[in-house]
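In this section we walk through a basic example: taking a raw amino acid sequence and producing a predicted 3D structure, encoded as discrete structure tokens. The instruction is simple. Fold the sequence below.
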Amino acid sequence: MEDVKRTARRTTAEHIIKKLAIRNMTGHYRHTAAEAVELARDLVEPGQSVTWGGSVSFSESGIKAALEADGHRMIDRSQATTPEEQDAMWREQVGADWFFMGTNAITLDGELVNIDGNANRLALLLHGPKHVCVIAAMNKVVADVESGLKRIRTVTCPLNAARLHTGTPCELAGVCSNCHAEKCMCCQEVITRHSRHDGRIHVILVGEDLGF
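The resulting token sequence is shown next.
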């Protein structure tokens, strides 16, 4: 059964990679998280700086630990404690060589589907860092954009709300109510359908389940 899953996921990933190329994004497939780690280490050149969004996949895959061990300058927003430090950290993040993030969903046609509350994660996807690396485990693959938004509302947000203790309806009731709560996580919905900048966005499709 494992060989069947491996073959099926690779076939699907190869299809998505072709669609990503049309959208001027570079796709890669690695069957295991360990293989994805080695790819990420190859992509980030010595001396380059690295930052990241609130991505479970980035840490869960082992990529974050590996890049730290390689001695890259890690721009960690969690280290900023005052408003002044947060402002300075944001400027550093915008100028980073690499920004790593997960994606809430990726369509079979190669579109990235994401939501955000503060929008810092999506802001850096859209503009700023020289390179963006999106870690997209195959459990994030959906048929189309509408399916991606549905996945976010029924899977991603309830799990992230429980992790972050947002007090939003998706945490308290387990389902989205299209809320306007103080800590609403769905303030922005962004569909990335094309990259204007050659070589900026890399998408690593991973054959193992990662993140939410």
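Looking at the output, two observations stand out. Residues 105 and 140 are 5 Å apart (CA to CA). The mean pLDDT is 94. In the next section we compare this with other chains.
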